[in-house]
Specification:
By secondary structure, the chain is α/β, with parallel strands linked by helices. Helix content is 35%, strand content 28%. Helix 3 runs parallel beside helix 6 (138-152) and helix 4 (108-121) packs across helix 6 (138-152).
Length: 224
């Protein structure tokens, strides 16, 4: 489904990604693990078209995304929850969730169907639907960002450091949500980044380790 081929990215003249090759198959669950500054967030931003490539390519279903702007990549069924959430603080939780569906021009019935999918998977968001996003706690904001990503993420979900900054109780809750998600939506592919491999291990088929912008190792679960 998603393939990164020898991707190189530089920011302000500094090389961040160096020949990154990474594949997420249809329905596959991959963990991208590395220290802070290893290149995880840059990889996600490159996938979404938020950073230009110096070299290499990114393919989705075998087609190059080189000339596709970010909003067209979302329309392919890709959902992205960035590490800093990026919610609109003056909009309610429900308005934040509805916004990407409206931006894609989905029919009203399809918008509602996707919203109900989020309410079903994340019932706590239904209870917070009328609260301003700026009034959410850090953990609630992470869950809201996940919900927003699910609105567009019908085929592939990108979660950038979802456990970062969460208290232990909230981290456990987020883990329960991810476990339910991967169990119920077998066809949904997942790429999730983290500094701690133990946090993503229960939800993924393989862990890809990135160090200083390069893929250092790929560890698959036994039997896969």
């Amino acid at each position: 489904m998603l393939s990164l081929e020898e991707v190189e990215v530089a920011i302000q003249g500094a090389k961040i990604l160096r020949g990154v090759t990474l594949r997420v198959p249809e329905g596959g669950r991959i963990g991208l693990v590395g220290r802070n500054g290893a290149g995880k967030t840059t990889t996600f931003r490159a996938i979404m078209g938020l950073l230009p490539l110096e070299r290499g390519g990114i393919l989705f279903d075998g087609a190059s995304l080189a000339r596709w702007p970010a909003h067209r990549r979302v329309a392919l069924g890709i959902g992205y929850a960035p590490e800093d959430r990026r919610l609109f603080p003056n909009l309610t939780v429900e308005e934040n969730l509805r916004l990407p569906a409206e931006a894609l021009g989905l029919a009203p019935a399809e918008r509602q169907r996707r919203l109900e999918r989020v309410w079903d998977l994340l019932p706590e968001l239904r209870e917070l639907r009328d609260r301003r996003a700026g009034a959410l706690s850090g953990g609630q904001g992470k869950i809201a960002a996940l919900g927003r990503a699910l609105v567009t993420g019908t085929r592939l979900l990108l979660l950038d450091e979802p456990f970062q900054g969460l208290a232990p109780a909230l981290a456990r809750r987020y883990g329960e949500i991810l476990a339910r998600l991967v169990a119920r939506e077998r066809g949904l592919a997942l790429l999730v980044s983290e500094s701690n491999p133990e946090l993503v291990a229960p939800f993924v088929d393989a862990v890809v380790t990135i160090e200083r912008g390069e893929i250092a190792a790929v560890t698959r679960k036994p039997g896969l």
